[in-house]
Amino acid sequence: MGLVEVYRKRKRLILFGCGDFLTDYEGISGYEQFRGDLTLMYLVKVDSRQGQLVEARLIPMQLRRFRLNRASEADARWLHDLLNRLGAQFGTQARLESDHSLALRL
User: Fold this and answer.
1) Fewer CB within 10 Å: N-end or C-end of the chain?
2) pLDDT, tens digit, for every residue of 31-54?
């Protein structure tokens, strides 16, 4: 899972280290605290004329046996808390929605 930042001056989305959507970390012991089984699907809406971010929704997913499934409510909350803690340095915050997705606060 990577970090998310919104460049406020121009409302541009910046994604750091978000390329590992499907990984082969499953079954590697000793790193369970990093939750390599969890990932985020990024659904973004951008104004095509100005290139500005309109909306960003992140869908928490869990990888099990190389299959993607929606993450549980507890796992979505864990990702929400982690994103908000790590994103604080960038002024980025996410809101946990009733469907357990995360919406970036713009």
Assistant:
1) C
2) 556 677 888 999 999 999 998 999
